[in-house]
């Protein structure tokens, strides 16, 4: 069963919140992280962390951020579950 647009939006928001939490834990400002992943402004990071204007991190961003912050990419997906009940799989 495909995800609804609102579900996808919530997933992006959770990923953004996780990136922000991990970024702060590692003492990176939004600007420092932006520059480290090849962006010259904080727009992407600041917008994607809160889901502003539909902005979100793509897989390339997440891989770069994980490398910079020295964390497993899976940490960005904390709190996100895709479990379906058996009746939904039929």
Write the layout of secondary structure elements.
Elements: H1 5-25, H2 30-36, H3 43-50, H4 59-69
Number of domains: 1
Q: What would the average pLDDT be, to the nearest integer? A: 91
CATH class: Mainly Alpha
Q: What is the number of helical segments per DSSP (H or I, 4+ residues)?
A: 4
- Approximate shape: globular
CATH architecture: Orthogonal Bundle
Q: Low-confidence parts, pLDDT < 50 over ≥5 residues?
A: 85-90
According to CATH, the fold-level topology is 434 Repressor (Amino-terminal Domain)
Number of strands: 0
Give the radius of gyration: 14 Å
Order of helices and strands: HHHH
The percentage helix is: 40-55%
CATH superfamily: lambda repressor-like DNA-binding domains
Key words describing this protein structure:
90 residues; mainly alpha; 434 Repressor (Amino-terminal Domain); 4 helices; 0% strand; globular; disordered C terminus; HTH cro/C1-type domain-containing protein; Cro/C1-type_HTH; DNA binding
